[in-house]
Automatic annotation (TrEMBL):
Pfam families found in the cross-reference section: HTH_30 (PF13556), PucR (PF07905)
GO biological process terms on file: monoatomic ion transport
Gene3D superfamilies associated with the record: PucR C-terminal helix-turn-helix domain
Occurrences of domain PucR C-terminal helix-turn-helix (ranges): 454-506
The protein, known as: PucR family transcriptional regulator
Organism from which the protein derives: Tetragenococcus osmophilus
Signal peptide: none
Residue ranges of every copy of the Purine catabolism PurC-like domain listed in the record: 8-139
Length: 525
């Protein structure tokens, strides 16, 4: 069903390529090939947000043109690709865009057993399509010759890390191999898991499940369909459905696919029925609305009523479990629907509108104080009024992207809202646009640029103290009257009152960009 990586090197398009590193990984099976257009790892993490179906059988081809002269970025990319389940890189245009393959890149590939194949150097006429065509052709030919695939899939599953050895990954393997869509339901016909071919298939799976009632292969609306029982712990607990649109299913293909599911359930499905809230939180943050509704129904949780979310960062990773426990205890009396789970490195709290009259700012302040009393140092980010899973996912991505900048801009802040992050994103956009945009944004501060003490006072007064003289004095370790004098002096120099609207808005934005620039070392005079 797949071709070993080393056998692909005999193809005409790869015959002149050189294996420069990671030779120990050439025994791995290859089932697909992909083109890498984006080389920025931070952006890749967002674009490859849901990578649970990666199972280590795909090779990547790229010219790494966006990071051709940044070896550190190249090393970081290899580490990311290997972590995400890719098994090798075919590198183009060395000597054209990338000057040479750096020894550090070779070392990391050897360390990770990650094959690095370099196409003939100094050849700008090389085409990705030649390698793609021949690799895909070799994979298809192998699939046609080897009609038995169940054992190899099960062997691949057994070698996966435990966090990837799940039903979704198993179904992804089967759909890739059989080019069909597969659905698992409970005995009542409620969908539990589904894998589609192609991944963007518009086939109405719920309708097809309802129409498929026979264990024999049949055709419904030009789709070849079949239904088979799956036994778990000696009982028929799962129904297996298979749908193929391009050509008829074969009994051999159905039997092997069902066998893979059956054996998977026997070996690794011990906790399959024990669906937990962590999977539901994953489905929400990964914008998997169908899976979210299905899990919500199983867990009897009204996910449609969830409209508010907290992202809680815990200073000490070892304390996350304690934070989760205290959050559940604090919040369960306030909300009808409450989910508190760990997602990646962030504690996520999903809530409905609540059953008390308390506003979310008051709740957040009280919860934060109680956590502090327990010596649990946290930062709470509130996103309120979320309407869809897409909104939630976008909120999480923005929070992750700008969290460090937000902490620098507001070092005294422990409770953030989406407006904080929206403002930080707007300021970062100005900084990213270059010197002209930065100079224009800093024009209001120009008369103060040679007076660091006044700039720092203005930053603390507006950003940290919310225009409170006494609080600014505490933060700067000076008397409140000193702050009043400095603000008065600032007003005289800039000829405006930085404490009154609308002028204060202009200076708030300008001093925020000034502080962010201090963090990046891009001071503009």
């Amino acid at each position: 069903m797949s071709v070993e990586f080393k056998n692909l090197l005999t193809l005409p398009s790869l015959r002149e390529a050189e294996v420069v590193a990671g030779k120990a990984g050439l025994d791995q099976p290859v089932t697909s090939i992909n083109v890498l257009e984006q080389s920025n790892v931070d952006k890749l993490r967002k674009e490859l947000f849901n990578q649970e179906d990666k199972y280590g059988s795909e090779i990547v081809i790229s010219g790494l043109m966006t990071i051709a002269h940044d070896v550190n970025a190249q090393v970081k990319l290899i580490q990311h690709l290997q972590h995400e389940g890719e098994i090798g890189l075919i590198l183009y245009y060395v000597g054209v865009f990338i000057p040479e393959v750096d020894q550090r890149l070779i070392d990391i590939c050897d360390q990770l057993d990650f094959p690095l194949i370099v196409m003939p150097k100094g050849e700008p006429s090389l085409r990705y399509s030649e390698v793609i065509y021949e690799v895909v052709e070799a994979i298809i030919k192998q699939e046609m010759e080897e009609t038995s695939f169940s054992n190899q899939i099960l062997e691949q599953i057994s070698k996966l890390p435990s966090n990837q050895r799940n039903v979704d990954t198993m179904l992804k393997m089967l759909t890739d191999r059989t080019h069909s869509s597969i659905v698992l339901t409970d005995i009542r016909g409620q969908m539990i898991n589904a894998g589609t071919w192609p991944s963007i298939s518009t086939l109405d799976l719920s309708y097809m499940v309802e129409q498929t009632t026979d264990a024999s292969i049949q055709t419904i609306d030009s789709v070849s369909v079949v239904k088979r029982p799956i036994f778990h712990n000696g009982m028929e607990t799962i129904q297996f459905y298979m749908f193929k649109e391009t050509q008829p299913l074969t009994e051999n293909m159905v039997e092997q696919a069902a066998e893979v599911v059956q054996i998977f359930m026997n070996l690794w499905g011990q906790n399959y029925e024990a669906v937990n809230t962590q999977e539901l939180v994953k489905a929400i943050l990964n914008d998997e609305s169908v899976k979210m509704r299905r899990l919500g129904a199983i867990l009897h949780i009204d996910v449609g009523s969830i409209s508010n979310v907290w992202f809680v960062h815990v200073q000490d990773p070892a304390a996350r479990k304690f934070v989760m426990y205290h959050l559940k205890e604090e919040m369960k009396l306030r909300f009808n629907v409450l989910l508190v789970e760990l997602f990646e490195e962030t504690v996520v709290v999903f809530m409905d509108e609540g059953k008390t009259e308390e506003d979310f700012t008051t709740i957040a302040s009280q919860v934060f104080e109680h956590l502090q009393e327990e010596q649990l140092e946290t930062t709470i980010v509130q996103y309120l009024g979320m309407n869809t899973t897409t909104d939630v996912q976008a909120a999480y991505i923005k929070m992750e992207k700008y969290f460090k900048q937000a902490q620098f801009l507001y070092p005294q802040q422990q409770i953030f809202t989406q407006l904080h992050f929206q403002f930080v994103a707007e300021c970062e956009q100005v900084v990213s646009e270059g010197e002209k945009a930065i100079r224009q944004a800093l024009v209001p501060l120009q008369p103060l640029m040679q007076q660091e003490e006044l700039l720092e006072t203005l930053a603390v007064f507006l950003l940290d103290a919310q225009s409170h003289y006494a609080k600014a004095g505490e933060l700067l370790f000076v008397h409140m009257n000193t702050i009043k004098y400095r603000i008065k002096r600032i007003n005289e120099i800039v000829h405006y009152s930085v404490t009154k609207l609308p002028e204060s808005l202009i200076y708030y934005r300008a001093i925020a960009i000034w502080r962010l620039l201090k963090n990046t070392g891009k001071r503009t005079e």
